[in-house]
Amino acid sequence: MSALLEVNNVSKVFGGLTAVDGVSFTLEEGQILGLVGPNGSGKSTMLNILSGVYASDGGTVVHRGRTLTGLPPNAIASAGLARTFQNLQIFQGMSVGQNVLVGRTCRMRSTLFGSILGSPFARREERESRERARSLLERVGIARYMDAEPSSLSYGQRRLLEVARALASEPSVLMLDEPCAGLSQGEAEELAVFIRTLKASGIAVIVIEHNMRFVMGLVDRIVALNFGRKIAEGDPRSIRENEDVIAAYLGRKRHAHH
Amino acid sequence: MVDTVRARSRLYKALALVVLLVIAILLPLVLKSNYQLGIAHQALIFIILALGYDVLLGFTGLLSFGHIGLFAIGAYTSAILVMSTGAPFLVGLLGAAVLTGFIGFLIAIPALRIKGHYLTLLTLALGEVIRLVIRSADSLTHGSSGLSGIPRPDIFGYSFRQATPLYYLLLFFAVLAILFVWRLKISRFGRAFMSIRDAEIGAEVCGVNTSAMKMMSFAISAVLAGIAGSLYAHTMRFISPEFFGLGLTTTLLAMVLIGGRGTVVGPVVGAALLIVLPEALRFVKDYYLIVFGIAIWLCVIGMPDGLAGLGRRLLKRARLIA
Q1: How far apart, in whole angstroms, are the C-alpha atoms of residue B115 and residue B107?
Q2: If we measure between CA atoms, which residue out of A221, A173, A222 comes closest to residue A62?
Q3: Which residues contact A203 (CB under 8 A, 6 or more apart)?
Q4: Out of A80-84, A191-195, B107-111, which region has the weakest mean confidence (pLDDT)?
Q5: Residue ranges of the domains in chain A?
Q6: Distance of alpha carbon B187 from alpha carbon B241, whole angstroms
Q7: Hey, what long-range contacts does A232-238 have (CB within 8 A, 24 or more apart)?
Q8: Residue B286: inside a domain
Q9: Do A102 and B204 make contact, defined as CB atoms within 8 angstroms?
Q10: From CA B318, how far away is CA B238, in angstroms rounded?
Q11: In this structure, is residue B11 part of a structural domain?
């Protein structure tokens, strides 16, 4: 059986800097994968390639047998890959509910004239989308802010809003870029519980996170990057004991040079 | 509880709209002279133009300085169609809408690659090019002397030559434009436009086809400009290239900014205000532009969301006190 997502030998070069250097890994249905590594190791670049924000300079990304390489972000969203951002991309001028509704864009089919004239199809689609948006906001616990402006949300709640917005597109792969930043320990634990319910419903999750307690307790498998290269892959325990990973994080190699 | 608040605010909004509509319908009873009705005509036409401009500027966040060029193309297309081929008014109107929509679509193609100030400069140049082409195409447009004697609208034998029937015709189109833009705003397309304005990368990743949506936004705003242009030509009965200059572009921008961009009521209030105000301020004559400039300056500083935003803020405060 082929994997849900296959990342083959993907590279990205910025000027003279190779940000991602021939990285490969696979993701199975309903699996939670942690992408870890020190700052500048290429984690966020990897996520930007997977979501189509950056075009890769080499390699392929295959989702359910379909090659996504070179597709624009909106087509990748339609294919079923959704994400959140480390530096939030909230639509500040729209209500919390409308933010989530934008996330449903790639699942909506009503035409311009159908929407303007209120055709039965457009009305039903709009009503169903609204209900779905509300239930997603309920699941992340911010439904009471549905009609409020995002500026009235706390930083952590804005992260949850992005999660709800990403889920609105009914993804098969959800990519979270540092979801715990700005969350309290309690909120982070709630988020971990929530991500497990996603896994239970069959959604695969890729998570970038510096909070190691969060990552180790949550993920099924870890891919560790350093200087754009994959330095280790395995279950959380084996990664924790991996010499190269410890060296990358603690800089032991530098000590060895002395 | 939240739902009742929302339902109530929706009710207030609907009530305010009905009251406004009734006032608009009764207005010709108060406006006695043709001069006063003429100002009302212009206000209604500019409401349509400003609404279209708001779709581009307020919803999608694209600042174009070429919108008046589209307005001019609409006016000339309709006038030339009706005057030289004897086509009925509605054909002129339709022709104006189709041609400006198509040109708006064409303008959108470079606009997909060019962003921010560069896009604004590009559209500024396009607007001027349109004006110069109109001035040079002597045989078609009578150059800088302008087109005069454009007939008033005539629909299926019913003439709108008199000021009062014409007022109601323009009101009909203005109400249609308001309904259209309002429905657009609450549709998935309006949301897509606004998501591009607020966070373009976020919008793309959410599945918004930003290129297609920008093109649609340009085309919709251009069609509204074309309709407004056609109505303008057949209302004023005289058009010349000088009218469609940069000064009018600034006025249009001020209408949307002062009224409140990104809202439906904003451009309506802004357009009405900026058409009526200069007439009311006739007594300050040449100082008008100074007053006008200071007013825009104060608006941008004091109420960044325009009159519509100010109203919303006051409502919120009143609700907090109550």
Answers
A1: 13
A2: A173
A3: A30, A167, A171, A172, A173, A174
A4: B107-111
A5: 12-81+226-258, 88-171
A6: 37
A7: A233/A25, A236/A34
A8: no
A9: no
A10: 48
A11: no
Backbone φ and ψ of A5, nearest 5°: -135, 125
Cβ within 8 Å of residue B199, ≥6 positions away: A89, A90, A91, A92
pLDDT at B2: 52
- Judge contact between A61 and A24, C-beta under 8 A: no
**Cβ–Cβ under 8 Å, residues B207 and A169:** yes
What angle (nearest 5°) sits at the alpha carbon of residue A154, between those of residues A152 and A156? 145
- Based on the number of CB atoms within 10 Å of its own CB, is A21 exposed (0-12), middle (13-18) or buried (19 or more)? middle
| DSSP three-state, residue A160 | helix
Torsion angle (degrees, nearest 10) of CA B190, B192, B193, B198: 120
Query: What is the token pair recorded at B319?
Result: 């609700």
- Whether A91 and B199 lie within 8 Å, measured CB to CB: yes
Q: What is the pLDDT of residues B223-243, one digit of tens each?
A: 999 999 999 999 999 999 999
Q: At a CB cut-off of 8 Å and minimum separation 6, what does B187 contact?
A: A110, A112, A115, A116, A122, A126
- The answer to whether the A12-81+226-258 and A88-171 domains have the same CATH topology is yes
Mutate one of A78, A94, A102, A147 to test the B interface: name it (highest B CB count within 10 A).
Answer: A102
Instruction: Reduce the DSSP state of residue B99 to 3 states and report it.
Output: helix
Q: Which of B289, B315, B261, B311 is nearest to B53 (CA)?
A: B261
Range of the structural domain that residue B93 is part of: 35-244
Arithmetic mean of pLDDT, B25-50: 94
Do B58 and B256 touch, CB atoms closer than 8 A? yes
B155: in domain? yes
pLDDT at B286 over 80: no
Residue entry with tokens 């990342």: A7
Would you place residue B322 in the very low, low, confident or very high pLDDT band (cuts 50, 70, 90)?
A: low
Which residues contact residue A128 at a Cβ distance below 8 angstroms, ignoring those fewer than 6 apart?
none
Q: Is A107 on the interface with B (CB under 8 A)?
A: yes
Q: Is B10 on the interface with A (CB under 8 A)?
A: no
Please answer whether residues A95 and A189 qualify as being in contact, where contact means their C-beta atoms are separated by less than 8 angstroms.
no
- Whether the per-residue pLDDT at A135 is higher than 70: the answer is yes
Chain A environment of B6 (Cβ under 8 Å): 147
- β-strands A58-63, A66-67: how paired? antiparallel
Specify whether domain A88-171 bears CATH 1.10.3720.10: no
Taking the CA of residue A84 and the nearest CA in chain B, the distance in Å comes to 9
Model-level pTM greater than 0.95? no
- CA proximity to A91, closest of A36, A162, A139, A141: A162
B7 in a domain, yes or no?
A: no
Q: Six-digit token pair at A14?
A: 């910025």
**Fold classified for A12-81+226-258:** Rossmann fold (3.40.50)
**Distance between CA atoms of residues A132 and B249, nearest Å:** 43
Q: How is chain A split among helix, strand and coil, in percent rounded to 5?
A: 45, 25, 35
Q: What pLDDT is attached to residue B1?
A: 46
Mean pLDDT of all residues in B153-175:
95
Quote the number of domains for chain B.
1
CB A29 within 8 A of CB A202: yes
